[in-house]
Amino acid sequence: xxxxxxxxxxxxxxxxxxxxxxxxxxxxxxxxxxxxxxxxxxxxxxxxxxxxxxxxxxxxxxxxxxxxxxxxxxxxxxxxxxxxxxxxxxxxxxxxxxxxxxxxxxxxxxxxxxxxxxxxxxxxxxxxxxxxxxxxxxxxxxxxxxxxxxxxxxxxxxxxxxxxxxxxxxxxxxxxxxxxxxxxxxxxxxxxxxxxxxxxxxxxxxxxxxxxxxxxxxxxxxxxxxxxxxxxxxxxxxxxxxxxxxxxxxxxxxxxxxxxxxxxxxxxxxxxxxxxxxxxxxxxxxxxxxxxxxxxxxxxxxxxxxxxxxxxxxxxxxxxxxxxxxxxxxxxxxxxxxxxxxxxxxxxxxxxxxxxxxxxxxxxxxxxxxxxxxxxxxxxxxxxxxxxxxxxxxxxxxxxxxxxxxxxxxxxxxxxxxxxxxxxxxxxxxxxx
Length: 433
Known about the structure:
With 433 residues, this protein is an alpha/beta fold. The chain has helices at 12-21, 33-40, 52-61, 71-76, 98-110, 127-140, 162-168, 178-191, 212-243, 247-254, 277-284, 289-299, 301-313, 339-349, 363-368, and strands at 2-6, 25-29, 65-68, 80-83, 88-89, 95-96, 116-119, 149-152, 171-175, 206-208, 320-324, 353-357, 382-385, 405-408, 422-425, 429-431. It has an eight-stranded mixed β-sheet, sandwiched between helices. Strands 12-11-13-14-15-16 form a six-stranded mixed β-sheet. Strands 5-6 form a two-stranded antiparallel sheet. The longest helix is centred in the middle third of the chain and has 32 residues, at 212-243.
């Protein structure tokens, strides 16, 4: 097959490499010319994705993957088109389809009879049928279900381990017709390989969910579940803090039987997925009070952490406050919806002088994000651990001289490492040594 992957980001590029590694000819289309040039040279545009550089170099050198900025021309040559273009959501939860609309119109111009089009970007329920189908038909003059097939097949992978996740989880597809479902199943079975999953009654592989809407909702449901679960864990943590209970022991005890699956609490829920997809669900289902309450509870955690610091330290006006970690999660150089923004904002609102440290970011990059960079070893009054980078596990008092209060938002630090400071871990209360 000849396949076009539209969007060469942190999901799209590994997908293009995966397809090419299965022996297909792949055209990777992206509007970013610098990304395209790097891919053409066999060089990954972003760090941190396991095995990507080696696999990318191999498929580019073998002529199996070619990058281009001309989406329409690429689609015109292709049997299948896979779309992984970002969908943005504003602070009110309203989707911004701008980039996806533009890409879809470019696809429509090059669409030819017999092509399968699969959208993998997470979408509100109904988008595939009500938005992409008419847009593709109008722009191409073709009829879906007759001249081409349109399906939704959500990406279900985590950046940093995309290739492993592609094998580990069933590939969900939802089509607009039985024929489209058959085409999608045949396509994904030819480009993916699956690990054995004896724990799944249905077995691992490509799962037809019967409709595009069911596949759209499945992705929203699995991610919204995590946000709601973390919201519950955070509410337990806030209560445990007041009651002098170690919530982590409570969670471990609760999860020791098979009916409880409590997640871990923490200072923030960040990334492109968990904070965003519940908003997409709420866009469809405005009456989902449980989902809304969990999103609000999680969004309030950075301010809660700053409140803990203020309660232990006192007035933060003029205090030297350090936020440890800009990334939304450890080991990933990404700040999408990171708790660093809410934490810094809350500290500044309290009058603190705030600096930020992150081992994955240069000073210039932190400045570009609107932060004042920090060098470990510089004296501070208050420190808040926001990101669970492994480097922070070995943090000691020498790294934060003069510190009086530390708020551990990720349950990573030991009070023994800070003999002259008060260490507060979210969900554990005050520990003094």
